Amino acid sequence: MDNSTNVSRFKEVMGNYPTGVTVVTTVDEQGVPLGLTVNSFASVSLDPLLILWSIDKRVSTYQTFINTEKFAVHVLSADQGDLCSLFASKDTDRFGNCEWKLSEQNLPIIAGASGVMQCKTFKTIEAGDHTILIGEVTAIESENKEPLLYHKRKFGKIPDEFYI
Question: Does 105 fall in a domain?
């Protein structure tokens, strides 16, 4: 099987795997807030509290994110599909189009998320065309809202009939 067939099948399989949606934020060296939509997010460890996410090496903010000492991961709530699209778009004033504030740790925190984890960078790992960032959670906020999901290139929520 040629590589293009493998890539196509890989995208098909991964696209059929529902995930949550996050927005990861930080500030650059000048204090300008930066953020991007990420669905490659997972928990790693309870002791210490560690999470991971990955960033494409072609993203314009790549160097800032892999060199930052801290970042915040926002688990988006079901009603934040607009933020998901906003932070996935290019050449848009992302923070000018949403409600946010700086935390005590000087991280941009977006209002309305289901949960927010502020992290210090624990480790980065090169992985193909992405870099994996592992963060140690230093602060957690939880609103315990229904999460935004991503499945087959669409965003939505868990249907009511899903619950038993």
Answer: yes
